[in-house]
Amino acid sequence: MLEWLGEWSAGVDWVHVATIPLFTGVVGWLINWSGLVMLFKPVRFHGVRIPGMRELATVLPRKAQEVPGLLQGGVGWQGIIPARAAKMGSIAVDKAIAKLGTPGEFYQQLEPDRIAEHIVTVFRPEIPQLVEEVMCREHPRLWRDLPRPVREAVVERVQGQLPGVVGRVTDEIGIHIDQLLDPKIMVIDHFRNNPALVVRIFRDFGQRELNLMVAFGFVFGFLLGIPVAVVDSWVGQWWLLPILGVVVGWVTNALGMWLIFEPPEPRRILGIRVHGLFPRRQAEAAEVYARIIADDVITLERIGDFLLDGPRGDRTRQMLATALRPAIDKAAGPARAAVRVAVGPSRFDTIRESVAREAVGRTLTPFKDPAFSRRQAEQIRLLIATRTKELPPRDFVEMMRAAIREDEWMLYAHGAIMGLAGGFLHLWLFGVS
User: Which of 7, 99, 357, 420 is 20 to 30 Å from 429 by CA-CA measure?
Assistant: First the structure.
């Protein structure tokens, strides 16, 4: 045996053999580094539109259709994560946000009583203008003929009714919030329109782990290069190194992804404790994730936008107008019957409806106050952080990984291509073993 090893080692080109692990190590580092670039950049699609490509893409294999831009008729690239921003939003809701709390729970965290107080503070100065505009439009002669003290008394009475009206409005929103607010649509639309936000979610709490994955690319590549060097020295065929380079490139990327996400819970393998880089920092990640969701996604400002201008906005306006009508009747006070006779029932009802419609939009305008929204965001952040920490590790990993799981093959294929190129480069520099 020793004699055979001596004869074999005497005939080995040690420079050729020693450079193979170094090559595979460097290629492994480049694979993981460029793989991160592919994951995150560019945020928007960069490429060219080709006539007929959209139609051609529909008959390509399903995996090919997943390449960013093809189904839109373009040839180019968009980072895998921003390209799947809407999908990640959907999965984030299904896997996590839906478990973090119902729309009602989110709304209660925003403290409706404080919202009502803020609405009253902001809306009260606008009431004189609101009453003036409506009365001048609907019954200008009557309003002009009323003595100033009477007009001022009407405005004061409306202002006096305001806290009760607003309290009723915020209560009605809370009662019907599950029918008026859809967090899933909110999150999906916001992620689709702001793909950079999804990149930020990964970057803000995972940059350290991603950098470690790049470093491990060299380690994995170097270790895999050792058996490649041995096999190549035995076989000595020109085609072997490029083929083994494909295997090394594919496995290096697969190991990098495994290193980040698996296993979701601590496990011992060959006596060594292993735990995915992301799930081991779930508590820290929960704080970052909660801050981003509370500051940018599920905010009081965006809830107000969704309630009034979202797909269920008409229902919100109708509900609020219904809640406002009784208060408008009360604002007329003892003179209500006389006013109704003076202007006519239909005209009185028109005035009441106009005031209600005008008041709906202005009632929820304070929802869109950015400064007030930021103050209330702390409550949402605490809720999401607490619930995210309580998620089972597998659900947490799935929330982060599911959006890119179907596209991981592109990263592996990219690693295989770079491994093939590395094999040919080594062959060109050092020849056949």
Answer: 7
